[in-house]
Design goal:
InterPro entries: Glyco_trans_29, GT29-like_sf. One of its GO terms (biological process) is ganglioside biosynthetic process. GO terms for molecular function: alpha-N-acetylgalactosaminide alpha-2,6-sialyltransferase activity. This protein is of the alpha/beta class. It has two domains: about 10-65; about 65-215, sialyltransferase cstii, chain A (Alpha-Beta Complex), CATH 3.90.1480. Helices cover about 40% and strands about 15% of the residues. The chain has helices at about 10-15, 20-40, 45-50, 60-65, 105-110, 125-130, 145, 150-155, 170, 180-190, 200-215, and strands spanning about 70-75, 80-85, 90-95, 115, 135-140, 160-165, 195-200. A seven-stranded mixed sheet has the order 2-1-7-6-5-4-3. The chain is globular. The structure holds 2-acetamido-2-deoxy-beta-D-glucopyranose.
């Protein structure tokens, strides 16, 4: 419910009391900053006072109130927009056979973000690996494996974000990138699928990190 706003229209006051208005603006701005920092009042309620009536008042929990961070290295295949994501405690689950019989599914499912690799299964292994998936990081070579079961990955698991990485020759967007073309077809068939590709710049950054950490050239 938007609250009525006790704000005097600016144009009426401005000519008479310039300095008071200026001071009020500074005070209002400071107030906004303090509110953001303390998180004691819901920010969308204040936005209503500035005319954004479409913002609904929702009693956020702490995790929902976190602002999403923008990650410019990952671009949505359908919208061409960068990835927005903010994680607290992450569970990064390997797709190694060693995960079997670990019985850590409940613990994994309690994490705010759960990362999985390629097409690593959860169905039938929930007790060991958990059932929630926030993100799947998928190699270009594993995209055909996901496409063997597209109804599961891109319809049933439509809350999962897919981040695909691969070399430029496969990921180019000019019609000659074999993997990019597959992904493009997939978002046409599954409009709710959240599929992102890694930019060339981000790929070279990751390659550099890999080399630094392992001493090996991935290329
Ligand atoms: C998204 O996933 C849910 C849960 O699996 C499913 O019920 C729903 O139909 C899916 N939505 C679309 C648009 O595929």
């Amino acid at each position: 419910m938007p609250e009525p706003c006790p704000v005097t229209p600016i144009h009426e006051v401005f000519s008479q009391r310039k300095s008071i208005v200026a001071v009020s603006f500074i005070a209002a701005f400071l107030f906004l900053i303090i509110v953001r920092l303390t998180n004691e009042v819901n920010f969308p309620l204040i936005l209503n006072c500035f005319g954004q009536t479409s913002v609904k008042w929702i009693p956020f929990s702490y995790t929902q109130r976190r602002t999403l961070r923008t990650h410019y290295g990952y671009i949505n295949v359908k919208t061409q927009e960068p990835l927005q994501l903010d994680c607290g405690l992450c569970a990064i689950v390997s797709n190694s056979g060693q995960m079997a019989a670990q019985k850590v599914g409940t613990e994994i499912d309690q994490s705010s973000c759960i990362w999985r690799m390629n097409n690593a299964p959860t169905k039938g292994y929930e007790e060991d690996v958990g059932k929630r998936t926030t993100i799947r990081v998928v190699s270009h070579t594993s995209v055909p494996l996901l496409l063997k079961n597209p109804d599961y990955f891109f319809r049933e698991a439509n809350s999962t974000i897919y981040v695909i990485w691969g070399p430029f020759r496969n990921m180019r967007k000019d019609g000659n990138g074999i993997v990019y073309n597959m992904l493009k077809k997939t978002v046409d068939s599954y409009p709710s699928a959240k599929i992102y590709v890694t930019t060339e710049k981000r790929m070279s950054y990751c390659d550099a990190v890999f080399k630094e950490e392992t001493g090996k050239d991935r290329l």
